[in-house]
Amino acid sequence: MPDAEVICGDAYDLVRSVPENSVDLILTSPPYFGLRTYGVPAVRVWGGDPACSHRWPGSAEEAEVRGQFCPDCGAWRGQLGLEPSVGMYVEHLRDFFRLCLHVLKPSGNLALNLGDSFARSPAKGGSGPASKERAYAGGCGLGSGPEKMKLGVPWRVRFALNDDGWVSRDDIVWEKPNSMPSSAGSRLTTTYEMVFRFVRDVRPGPYCRLRSSALLNAPDVAAEFGRRCATWGSVGVLPREMCEPGWAPHLVRVDAYFDLDAVRLPLAESSVRRALQATLERQRGGPKAAGYAEAVMHEQKRAVPNLLRSLKAKVSREQGKFGLASVSRTVDGLHDGDWQRYFHPWGKNPGDVWSIPTEGFEGAHFAVMPLQLCCLLVMLLCPPGGLVLDPFCGSGTVLVAAAQLGRRALGFEVNPEYAELARARLVREGSQVTLWELEPAAGGGCG
User: Fold this and answer.
1) SS (H, E, C) 226-241
2) How many Å apart are CA 294 and CA 298, to the nearest integer?
3) How far apart are alpha carbons 112 and 373 in whole angstroms?
4) How open is the CA angle 25-26-32, to the nearest 5 degrees?
5) DSSP string covering 166-190, please?
6) For residue 363, is pLDDT > 50?
7) Fold classification of 4-43+81-203+351-443 (topology level)
8) Which of 85, 235, 366, 433 could, after both became Cys, cross-link 437 (CB 3.0–4.6 A)?
9) CB-based contact 252:208 (threshold 8 Å)
């Protein structure tokens, strides 16, 4: 296949043509529940009896918007996301990702972006399929739900995939600092979506990362490891075959590809200053410190002597944030000027709340993931030269991110108009870039 390709067709059919164990990262945002219609090409038949000839009461327009049930076998004809219940929607996604289990490598990742919906009866109005808060049925599939109830769709899907064997590793909150304002007066504006990371297997895989202790204990190994990462195209992960046997004490085998060093955030200057300050017993304190300490000691002299000794021990040895996790009995918490033991010199772990603004798009597609979010996930979860699959690729943002970062990209899109948008965008924006060209975006992407 080409380095980047968009295939127009139904993802449920096309994913069956992907070779087993060939995909390194599935990064996708499927149609949200009750959100919008993607046109007649997105209509397909779900469930029922394959041998049934199917009868569909009602018009073709009804199938496009609400869907139809076959009275003979119970099959449903309609679009993913426009099911009559959230339970059916979850089952349809569950069926699809069962197929994806076979195409993903054992060391691969699945990153799934989903937004939530609210129960709302169509009989009470609404702005149609484009409404961001409309669920086409008032019920929630797992028992009828009341009007206006937040359905928890992302978490229902997450737990259903767990039941199928997908192992959850991260639940990333994508916070949108520029989210659209809401007219709702009885609830808070929803300003986030979820990105769930799953893996197939938690056994040690074919990739290694460097232990942070190697930066101090084996600087030559760390330097050569870094050079080989740069040559290969990663920041902090290498295939085992690119590592020397003698490096084994300084390496950790990871279960799935995970290049944390590629998305670290710079340490705040205040954190570095705090880490380098003296321990409590060497801090002079402010003008009130001596008087306060004297008062405390005077009060404690009336107490049990053991309590007094305990207080003295706490004053003489700091029990701060990492005080109980000291690497040696002579190191007090974060201090003694040995901050490398507690802070990674390449930056901090960004955590699982990422503040990334939404991005506009000039084309006809109105549900576009930010390129910044996609780039961070591709750098974090896909090896250089690996294959990224987006089975619901829309305008092609995931594919553009993969191409820019030197990964191969494969996208499926059921709507022919959107497929052409994605192809044109790949031609226009898919040139490979260097990591330092992405640094301004990535550096503020997860803070």
Assistant:
1) HHHHHHHCCCCEEEHH
2) 6
3) 12
4) 155
5) PEEEEEEEEE-TTPPP---SSSPPP
6) yes
7) Rossmann fold (3.40.50)
8) 433
9) yes
C-beta of residue 247 within 8 angstroms of C-beta of residue 229: no
* Residues in Cβ contact with 315 at an 8 Å cutoff, skipping those fewer than 6 apart: 280, 281, 293
Residues in the chain: 447
DSSP 268-287: PHHHHHHHHSPPGGG----T
**What is the average pLDDT across 28-52?**
85
The segment with the largest mean pLDDT, out of 34-43, 272-281, 312-321, is: 34-43
Which tokens is 28 given? 């996708």
8 Å CB contact between 373 and 441: no
Q: Distance from CA of residue 294 to its chain's centroid?
A: 52
Tell me the one-letter amino acid at 380.
Answer: L
Tally of CB atoms within 10 A around 292: 11
Map out the domains of the chain as residue ranges. Answer: 4-43+81-203+351-443, 44-78, 207-254, 269-341
SS3 44: strand
Radius of gyration of the chain measured on its C-alpha atoms: 27
* pLDDT of 156 above 90: yes
Q: Rounded distance, CA 381 to CA 260, Å?
A: 9
Contact in structure between 436 and 230 (CB atoms under 8 Å)? no
Distance CA 362, CA 383 (A): 31
Task: Answer for the pair 145, 138: CB distance below 8 angstroms, yes or no.
Answer: yes
Q: Average pLDDT in the 111-118 region?
A: 92
Indicate if the pLDDT at residue 383 is higher than 60: yes
Neighbours of 215 (CB within 10 A): 19
Residue 44 pLDDT greater than 80, yes or no: yes
**Measured CA distances, 334 to 217, 273, 310 (Å):** 19, 11, 21
